[in-house]
Amino acid sequence: MSGPSFVVFAESYDAADFSRLLGTIVIDPCRPLDNYAPALASKSPLPFIDDYRLNVNRDTVNVIKTKALRETSAATTLVTLFSLGKDWAKSNTYELKSDDIKTISIQQKPAAFEALKDSHGEELTELLRKYGPIGYMLVGFKSANNPDIRTEYKAGKENSAGFSTEGIITAATGIPFAGDVGIEVSKAQSVKSALQSSLEGERVFAGQYIKIALRPKIQRVQESKARFRIGRVPLYQGMASFPTEKMVFSDSSDDSDDEAGEGDATHEADILY
Predict the structure, then answer these.
(1) Would you tell me how many other CB atoms lie within 10 Å of the CB of residue 3?
(2) Residues 160 and 189 sit within 8 Å (Cβ to Cβ)
(3) What are the tens digits of pLDDT across the range 47-96?
(4) Which of 76, 140, 238, 241 could form a disulfide with 208 if both were Cys (CB 3.0 to 4.6 A apart)?
(5) Are strands 248-252 and 2-14 parallel, antiparallel or unpaired?
(6) Residues forming a β-bridge with 185
(7) Residue whose C-alpha is closest to residue 236's, from 140, 138, 137, 141
(8) Where is composition skewed (Acidic residues) in this entry (predicted)?
(9) What would the pLDDT profile of 41-52 be if each residue is shown by its tens digit?
(10) Residue ranges per domain, the chain?
C-alpha cells in the first residue's frame, strides 16, 4: 500500500544545515533553497516547529529507485536539451543506496501551516505574489548516510537529429556530480548519459510537501469606511502531488525487490513528466 509521496531534489543537501528549512514555503519543490519564506536568520529551525511533534522513522529499505519508460509527444527536458524531435522514447532512472535512510516529518500538518501563517503571513504572501501563486510547505524529508547515487537518462529515435552535448549533465540534473560521467550516441540516434557519485555524511535527497495557494478571501477592514475588502491570502490545499513533472516515489508497506539482494528492499515508482 502506497504511503506519502516524496519528490527527489535536483541535488542533495547537508542534513545538519537543511533540517532548519522544515516548515518553510518554497516555490520549486526540487530546488527548495532557490526561493523560500520565511527568511531564516540563524541556523536554528523555525520556532513554531517545536510545537508540533516531529516523527522520525528509520527506513527498512536501503535502496530507493524511481524509473520511467514511455514514448510521448510531449516536450521534455531531454527534448529541450538535445533539440530533438518530439517522438523520442525516453527512460530515466534514479537510484540511491545507503545503509542508513531515515524520514523526518511534521505531524498535524494543516495546524502547522496555520501557525506558520499566523507568525509569518506577510512574508508568505509576498513570496507567493512574487513567484507564485502556488507554493509548497516542506513538511518532511528523507536523508541517507554516505549514499551512493546513480542517475541515468536515455532517449532514442530512429531518425537522425543534430544536438550538442555541451553541459548536458549539469543542465539535465542541476547536480555538479564529481563521479563518473558517460555519454553514448549510436547510429540509431540513441542517447545515454549516466552519473555515479558517492557522497560522504548525511545527505537530504527528497522532500514531502503540502500545497499552498494564494487565493482571494473576504477580509474585514478596521478603521475604514469599507467594512470588507477582498484580499489574497495563502491557503492550505492539501498534500502535494506531482503527476506530470517531477521524479517522485512513495513509501510503501511492501517494497521488497528480488533483484536487490538478500536483506535489501527497494522503493520504486514511475517518474512522471
Answers:
(1) 13
(2) yes
(3) 777 777 778 888 877 888 775 444 443 333 333 334 344 445 566 788 99
(4) 140
(5) antiparallel
(6) 191
(7) 137
(8) 252-262
(9) 766 778 777 777
(10) 1-11+24-57+100-145+202-241
